[in-house]
Amino acid sequence: MIMRDAIAGLLSAIKDEYVVCANGFISRDTFNAKDRPRNFYMLGSMGQASSIGLGLAIADPRKKVVVFDGDGNLLMNLGILAMIAQISPKNLIHVVLDNECYDSTGGQPTISSSIDLSGAAKGCGIKNVVMKGLTEDITAAFKDCLAKDGPHFLLLKVARDPSEKTPRVNIEPPEIAARFKRS
Amino acid sequence: MDAQGLKKSLKELGFDFFTGVPCSLLGGIIRALGDDYIPSVREDTALGLAAGAYLGGRKPCVLMQNSGIGYSLNVLTSLNLIYDIPVLLMISYRGFGGKDAPEHIIMGKHCVELMEAIGISSRVCSGQDLESALAEADGQIKNGKPYAVFIREGAVS
Which domain holds residue B133? Predict the structure, then answer.
């Protein structure tokens, strides 16, 4: 499944959850599939979507927080797995869309194809770790994460679309933050 | 200023989310904060956590050594400053006046001007002046801006 379709599938299961999207095509695809005030789009600060999600999950345990992360993003902030495991917020679902490349800069490979990211999550001690391959159904696994206490780590292998031309997020950053905060 | 007094001032101003990476100069305040302090693995991660907490309705403070400014610059410039996400930075000032271990000398010489260069207001504090710096910081934070309070050796006991 290509990443854009995987994101559309995940969004179809989202109701009132807060979604923090990593920079690059993850934010762009989410914005273009279904923009909503409870989506936070990262434009820069690669690696930090997971930190923002964790901070939000700690700040308000009543909010269910979903992070749409990428493999390049996670590799840049791998220590977050240790923090999520240690703090163990029940309301956090960390989804990693792993296309094994830095897509928005031209598809240069990351090293995720030879790294066991779900093993890293398990090794840190994250309670619920699930991995889905390229051809597997992802919606049921995601719905399961939404229904049960976390923290969840859901690694989804996705394909790169070399012709991807999804437009950029066209909301000003202060408005992205302000509407997310009041939503 | 003693650490308990500083904690009280921070709480009175409404700060209710504390994270960071320690420095020996911040040992007292981190100890005073106790369970209110969340240890982060890196300074940029701490800033991300604080931004998430802010979006969740909290008033965050990040503690770090000035060496952590290096890791923090990208998050400050491509998250906090462009999304109007405020944060109080409590930064220990190693290398002040060029007297410290070698790894602190260059950052010690440039940390204040680095903050100025990216448009973040700051004050260098040595003790009781912390109180007025925090009041000034709070004004900036209410306007959606980060503010850096530099803490010199001996400023917090």
Answer: 3-85+102-151
- Rounded Cα distance, B121 and B148, in Å: 6
Would residue B90 count as lying in a domain? no
Cis ω before B86 (30° cut-off from 0):
no
* Residue-range domain boundaries for chain A: 3-182
Give a yes or no: residue B94 inside a domain: no
Look-up of token digits 């100069």: B25
Closest Cβ–Cβ partner in A20, A80, A177 for B83: A177
From the list B42, B50, B84, the residue facing A55 with the nearest CB is B50
**DSSP letter (8 states) at residue B150:** E
Question: How near does any CA of chain A get to the CA of B127, in Å?
Answer: 30
pLDDT tens digits, B52-87: 999 999 999 999 999 999 999 999 999 999 999 999
Asked if A44 lies within 8 A of B47 by C-beta distance, the reply is no
Alpha-carbon distance A109 to nearest alpha carbon in chain B (angstroms): 23
- pTM beyond 0.95: the answer is yes
Query: Model ipTM?
Result: 0.97
Question: Rounded to whole angstroms, how far apart are CA atoms B41 and B124?
Answer: 25
Q: Which pair of tokens denotes residue A2? A: 């290509």
What CATH number labels A3-182? 3.40.50.970
Interface check B40 vs A, CB under 8 A:
yes
Q: What is the pLDDT of residues A33-77, one digit of tens each?
A: 999 999 999 999 999 999 999 999 999 999 999 999 999 999 999
Residue B49 has its nearest CB partner, among A55, A60, A173, at A55
Which residue type does B90 have? M
For chains A and B, what is the number of CB pairs under 8 angstroms?
A: 112
Element (H, E) at A67: strand A65-70
Chain A nearest-CA residue for B59? A59
